[in-house]
Queue: 2 jobs
Job 1
Amino acid sequence: MIHAEDVVKSFGTHTALDGVTLRVPRGTVLGLLGHNGAGKTTLINVLTTVLPPDGGTASVAGFDVVAEGAQVRSSIGLTGQYTLVDEDLTGRQNLVMIARLLGLSSRDARRHAAELLESFGLVDAADRKAGKFSGGMKRRLDLAVSLVGRPHVVFLDEPTTGLDPTSRIALWETVERLTREEGTTVLLTTQYMEEADRLADAITVLSHGRVVASGTAGELKAGLGRRTVTITPSDPALASEVLSRNGFEVGRELDAVHVPVSATREVAVVVRLLTDADVDLAALTVTEPSLDDVYLALAAQPRGVLQ
Amino acid sequence: MTTMPASPFVQVGVLTGRSLLGLRDPRMIVMNLLQPMIMLTLFSQVFRTMADAPGFPPGVEYLDYLMPAILVTTGAQAAVWAGGGLANDLKNGVLARFRTLPVTMVAVVAARSLFDLTRSALQLLTLLVAAMLLFGFHPPGGVLGSLGALVLALVVGTGLGAVFMALAAWVKNGELLQTIGMATMFPLMFASSAFVPVGNLPGWLRAVAVVNPLTYAVDAARGFALGAAAWPALAAALGVSSVLLVAGLGLAARGVRRP
């Protein structure tokens, strides 16, 4: 549904997108992960026809973003990093206006607006000016507005940035419902690994305008993140010494010792080494790598690690 | 579903309606009317002896001479507001959304233009009625001639408004636009036939006034009000206004598309 091939976009001497290729199959959610300035919003702008690419090609819902911009715009919805609603209009007026612009009759537009207000929990606030909405409500209205035309493809550009945890979870549930019930294709950008982990079928990591990794969350973790064994030994100093001597990286934190391991059997090796050295273990935990670990590992490496 | 977007005419209607919702604020209406009333009061009192000056058309009341010019210059000043309004819209997130919708940018700027036309028409109509009731404005051209002057003022204001909208879409900064607007409109107003006959202006100013399109607009409006239609001036005013309108809207639409 979304297909970008070697997309390049520069602003003056700054290259915002340096040959980005990605593909989002119909009905799936792609999480686009990256820090500020990685090129996420620029890519969204190109895919939503707001900015023309300098090089490469991109199509959305089967339409070329340059040659068939109008058709692309008829097929998409966008919830931006900054809310794209008219703050001088009420929530209802915003929805009706967009519905009318998308070709609904006045009566259908009002009915559709009422449905959306209902399903986004905005009925009570419907006739207040959007400018007076709280951050979470504004974002919900923004999402509702972007779904007015029942778009095939929805772009969510950092949809939960600046939201409190409750609003964030509510928005996640809405996105999940959308993909489950409507089969909508979603491209989601985020700085939060947790968000990508929860919502995305596949993840692409963008750094300095390039794709540095892509795969499922599991693949990324397996390929890059290492598990960590955390132990609480009777003698932390001795434990650290024994493990370092045997080639393990060791981190100490009060009574705890952290040992990154790359394979499951190394957990057994750690335990055996410590038993042989007569070190008792009060506790032992093995933690899976988080996407944060993956991201940090990638940030430290040149491109092409996992492609 | 892939929606069939509304026709451009419906789009213009919906978008104009959106702007008109903002006009419900009574403070805006009062402020819109206050300024031209002040202008009318000041000018009619300050310059009333002007009619005795040499070079002034004989037998013409200064108020009858002044009022068409007030209409045109008020219309022209509203043009700056049209640009300011668009600059405000550009700051409002909703315009960023329009770029991602199947909405033509020509509809966006045309709607803005229609809204300002509506606002300006209300303003000028109030001004005209006030001039007739409070200041005894009863020109030889009668009510019909006065309305002719009013319509022409609207046409000129709309043409100029398109230019300021193009400028707004280009600079994307409301304050800068207001500054440019003041810096251009005030000299244009005074270096014209608006307040004194062109022949009474000093030489260099007269040269400016002769090529100033506002002079033709004022002369034509004055022709209507004084009951002696000035056809060449009218043709010039309408011609220049239409060119400005088409070019301005086209450039503004292009500018608005660009984020």
Note: The interface with chain A takes residues 1-6, 10-11, 14-15, 17-18, 21-22, 92-94, 96-103, 259 of chain B (CB under 8 Å).
Job 2
Amino acid sequence: MSDRTGMDYRIRLELFEGPLDLLLYLIKRDELNICDIPIMKITQQYLDYLNLMEDLNLDIAGDFLVMAATLMQIKSRMLLPPDPAGLETQEEDPRAELVRRLLEYKAFKEAAERFRELESKQSGVFGRFGSEPEYKDDDVSFGDVSLFDLLSAFAKVLKSINEDKPHEILKDEYTVADKIHDIVERLKSETTVKFSRLFRAAKNKLEAITTFLAILELIRLKKVLIVQDEQFGEIEISKNSNFVLED
Amino acid sequence: MDAQDLRPILEAILFASDSSLTADELKDAFDGEISTAAVKAALSELEKEYESLGRGFALKEIAGGYQILTHERFSSHLKRFYQSREKKRLSPASLETLSVVAYKQPVTKADIEFVRGVNVDGPLRTLLEKNLIKIAGRKEVPGRPILYGTTKEFLAHFGLNSVKELPPLSEFSEKDIDQNLLPPQMRAVTQSEAVAEIEAETAELGSGIREEGLAEQNSKESLLSDKVETGEED
């Protein structure tokens, strides 16, 4: 499927969200018990996301693949029958090391939330201004909506597209650049658009993928903002007023 | 100097300063006439005075020193007026990376990456540029990797006076779960185990940054002792 987009370039997304983020995302979304992770289920979902990212030609960090291997290893160890000889030393649950890492990371993430609150409170407090250097823009991020929220929303869209005609291989009717232009035009008139609505006109999966990649590119370029009011709810896209929307 | 003038002089110095100043530093204005304790007492009076008069500013203890800052209750007005001066929010990745550095300092890039499960080059670069973290020496192991720690600017950014004010990490962990599943630093440990752990860690740091290590050790110890108290309550 990776060639269907017919694109000359890969979207170079420096993913600052890694495999632990994805696992925590899945755990939170499906309300899994982090201390008793259903390893089969989570491995399958993890791999589904990985496949989706690969299909989209996203530059995935090697860490994701290492984690995939780890999950599969844990899975197979859990499938092994218990040792009939009954080892004296209690062998640790194969998931234990992973769970420890997840718990530790989760604790730091929550500490980060606390920092966010402190930062917010302090941002309204000022001292005498010195000759402060202009801060360059922070690293690329999706704001408070994670890459995985976007991927989930996109997966939903893909599912709902019916390709009634068998895949007609036309030459690229639409490129990512075209779609970027379309979205920019649309945001000029409507200040905010629901994510799903951007795909209404998509005639087939190829067009949907191209549209999605255009959205990612606009996010990367900070020309749009994305917001998700409810956890795992509808995503809204609006133009970033700090930037003038040019083509 | 007229004794009456102590407070106004301190007030004037702080008024002109664009960063926090310690009582020791402030004492220098008086050419040995005034003790640090007297300075602190005077500052405390100033702080109370501003509060009781309902001034638009407050005298705060921040980033290890004293500074006159706009009163937080007027944040919305200040933000509106000084929009262009507002510090940009940190990205989630930077904030998480910073969170790891704050609690684990001094810490190597590799250790941070192990916690976050992903490369941290970008966030580290950003945090260094913003002077929220600094290089705190090198770990005395093969390769001598760089160690990172937080800065005074870090404290100022979050309105903290010292790293000790951070709530213990155990506060963020899940309650009521199998203790054996918790990472070592989050389990309730005895005081002596905790001290032994820190001593083992600091022994690795080597002479170059022993002073830094001791400073951090003290702050870590108090973080851990808070945590130990919490653990015992459970």
Note: Chain A has two domains: 12-81+91-123, 138-247.
